[in-house]
Predict the structure.
Amino acid sequence: QSVLTQPPSASGTLGQKVTISCSGGGSNVGKNPVTWYQQHPGAAPRPLIYNFNERPSGVPERFSGSKSDTSASLAISDLQSEDGAHYFCAAWDDRLSGYVFGGGTQVTVL
Amino acid sequence: DVHLEESGGTSKHPGESLRLSCGAAGFTFSSYSMNWVRQAPGKGLEWIAYINSNGETTYYAESLQGRFIISRDNAKSSLYLRINRLRAEDTAVYYCTRDLLLPTGRFCDYWGQGTLVTVS
């Protein structure tokens, strides 16, 4: 059972907007920035959003993050076929002194 | 460019031990904390351990304490993970990650491609 809670799946058609939630607690999401990772089959996770809503170089502006109290969200606007992947949220947990992850959300582009 | 490459993954029997390595290039290894994260087949990500830049501070996932040992050799720009008393549930791809500390918090900014450990 993951410390952070994500829906197992989400879907949308090309061009639509998809939002994924990540629910945690006061020692992790409530206190530290959430990072969102994208993972395609057979590949390593790639950071999409870090430090609340910053994107590493090369990540399209279609990806955005937000946070409220102990929950965070990843929004994918203008959904593209290459966005079909697994998405994980993560945060440092001050009580556990380590990273905690969500169980992952499989995004399907219909 | 930052590059992390894990090695040492192989097939083992339950009860055996294993040491994984991660070679780093493209950045000043001795200036960064590092982590190990694993992913069982078809499952999510699980953080295993953290080590600070000089190796003096380590943290472990509570559920894994006692069998996993993280270490580093800054002179060789290498990170290590020793796993003792292997269990079937240790079967996973093991990733090393670089830890980036920002004023607001930290995250794993670079990941290796992973190395597969199979225990059966």
User: Anything to note?
Assistant: Chain A touches chain B at residues 2, 32-33, 35, 37, 43-47, 50-52, 56, 88, 90-92, 96-104 (CB under 8 Å). The first strand of chain A starts at residue 9 and ends at 12. The two ends of chain A are 29 Å apart (CA to CA).
